[in-house]
DNA sequence: TTGAAAGCGCTAACAG
DNA sequence: CTGTTAGCGCTTTCAA
């Protein structure tokens, strides 16, 4: 491990000149710079990030917090963010906070402290307390999924997306519509699930449909949870004719449940998802598409902007959504029969 | 940002004592430790990782290299690894090298240098040159997926897995068997795809079946690639009756192609995948299951062992595999007709 | 354009 | 059990 001193000695200059030369700072003659670069390469010199970090106070590292890595959705966002960070010369520190324990631990110990120059929170609904902990870091902060004081933010219009989905079902003739929610019974200050639930109920009301409490079932975030939720709906005395789900993965679980019960989609049940998961096309799921990679990339870019400008000004960027109609939605059986009469 | 000196002053001790106390080192009275801990908490003191890293030479950080984050398979492995690293007090630095450009860039610049205490390579087939670059780091190294000199390694028996899958097809009565490979035309020293291809051909030979070159189609790693591959197979003059695919995601693409062509599975075509993707159960895919999270976790554990023991001894751990038979495989139509006669 | 010197905040070896 | 001292390897004034 050759140090900067070694490079300096061989180049016949001082360490400061090497430092300047290697980082492209001005104040070094082109000739000297070239010589230094050559020798550094020859020696396979690589800077000590710890030393550099200690001296400058910057780590050239961004902390990314995400509930899970193994969901397609999060993987995509992370990928988008990483690309931007890498291009700007930053490395990415990954923290997953999927289960309650690791989440609490993260916000208690705040392992990003002193490790990163900025923090990117991906699709996680922060409690006010958690957001506060992060603000206390006094670093540029960004958020994908919703807005929060002190964070730059990139997000879609959850209300509008929900409306698109539900109105689509209503337009097809459905009136008995359930929702598989993305919400644990005890939310941690989650906001998107709440917005979508409210928008769901609002859209029904706007169409003079009375929301039915037993048709609002919890779903968490897995295929299995979606399956159980649909099982539950099918077990009610009068099952709905259509279901709006919080996420495509829940919808896929719902599809699985339908298949297991020998019911067909959309004849026996219309299903709409949210996200436009890469598999959704395959299972012919009607869904609300949102740009996923782009949200990660954009949020990372906002962070980079703050970092280079040195400003602490946050910004908010809305992202487009779109209803993608596929085979999982159709008119309810009753209306089909009626029209057949 | 209170420093260690501030804490020391308030506690009426020296910085070294604070350092010892906070890191749980011996040689501090319980009373003093408690007092220091209290004050540190009160001041919201957090250690400067750069300074600590510079002083100790350790970063408490592990570099994880992975082709993509957005594949279920990789997400799972990362998740498994992260859990183990976090528990051991290490943070995780993530590097994705999915496309050629970022891969070359990574191995050229080696951004892990001076940033991490160990490197974990997940399911990436390294070229000898790339492995060399990593070995030059002189850090503990681990690999998931295959073996390499100087790396601890966790992997399944690809040959055996392939044999399980292909023999299953043969036992069902298939003799016209194709393979959708996980191999780009110009491999980068990839080894698992080669092993599986060879094992595929060997298994056929062992059963006196002549492998047919036009039935060996390339597949890369996406659902789309699997779909195109199956399109290609269906377009041959005499399509096979069964297909073994390199990965479940390719198999899902193959299923999509079948559906698009109005063919049914397994009547018109039996399909076997590899991995046991979480969606595979849903699409009723017969597959070779391998532990995924566990491989990431185990590899991380091997690294932790090396780090704590300080030894540079590498170890190799085989992981179990299992054929999971679901609805995507059955006897070939001809044999079904014969038995019906 | 370059060099000398003074840290950045922590740890570790050695004394006490 | 605790303090003193001397760096870890780089950056950054300030002076030349």
UniProtKB/TrEMBL annotation, chains A, B:
Respond yes or no to whether keyword DNA-binding is given for this record.
yes
Coiled-coil segments, which residues? none
Q: Does the keyword Thylakoid apply?
A: no
Q: Which domain of life is it from?
A: Bacteria
Q: What Gene3D superfamilies does the annotation carry? A: 3.40.50.2300, lambda repressor-like DNA-binding domains (1.10.260.40)
Cited CDD domains: HTH_LacI, PBP1_LacI_sugar_binding-like
Q: Where does the HTH lacI-type domain lie?
A: 2-56
UniProt entry keywords in alphabetical sequence = DNA-binding, Transcription, Transcription regulation
Q: Name one Pfam family in it.
A: Peripla_BP_3
Q: Which GO terms describe its molecular function?
A: DNA binding
The cross-references to InterPro entries, in alphabetical order and at most eight, read: HTH_LacI, LacI/GalR-like_sensor, Lambda_DNA-bd_dom_sf, Peripla_BP_I
Name assigned to this protein? LacI family DNA-binding transcriptional regulator
């Amino acid at each position: 491990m050759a140090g900067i001193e070694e490079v300096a000695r061989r180049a016949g200059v001082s360490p400061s000149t090497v430092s300047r030369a290697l980082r492209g700072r001005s104040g070094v003659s082109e000739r000297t710079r070239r010589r230094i670069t050559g020798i550094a390469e020859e020696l396979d010199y690589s800077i000590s990030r710890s030393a550099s970090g200690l001296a400058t106070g910057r780590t050239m590292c961004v902390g990314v917090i995400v509930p899970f890595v193994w969901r397609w959705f999060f993987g995509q966002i992370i990928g988008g963010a990483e690309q931007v960070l890498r291009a700007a010369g930053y490395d990415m520190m990954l923290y997953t906070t999927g289960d309650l324990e690791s989440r609490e631990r993260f916000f208690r110990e705040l392992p990003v402290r002193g490790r990163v120059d900025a923090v990117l929170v991906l699709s996680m609904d922060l409690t006010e307390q958690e957001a506060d902990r992060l603000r206390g870091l006094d670093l540029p902060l960004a958020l994908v999924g919703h807005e929060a004081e002190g964070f730059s933010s990139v997000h879609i219009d959850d209300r509008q997306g929900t409306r698109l989905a539900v109105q689509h079902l209503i337009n097809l003739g459905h009136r008995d519509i359930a929702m598989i929610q993305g919400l644990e019974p005890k939310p941690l200050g989650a906001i998107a699930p709440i917005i979508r639930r409210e928008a769901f109920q609002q859209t029904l009301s706007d169409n003079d449909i009375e929301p039915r409490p037993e048709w609002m079932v919890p779903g968490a975030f897995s295929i299995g949870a979606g399956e159980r939720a649909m099982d539950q709906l099918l077990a009610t005395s009068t099952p709905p004719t259509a279901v709006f789900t919080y996420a495509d993965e829940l919808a896929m679980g719902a599809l699985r449940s339908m298949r297991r019960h020998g019911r067909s989609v959309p004849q026996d049940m219309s299903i709409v998802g949210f996200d436009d998961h890469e598999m959704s096309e395959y299972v012919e799921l009607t869904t609300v598409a949102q740009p996923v990679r782009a949200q990660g990339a954009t949020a990372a870019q906002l962070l980079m902007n703050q970092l280079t400008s040195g400003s602490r000004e946050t910004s908010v960027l809305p992202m487009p959504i779109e209803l993608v109609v596929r085979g999982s939605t159709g008119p309810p059986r009753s209306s089909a029969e009626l029209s057949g009469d």
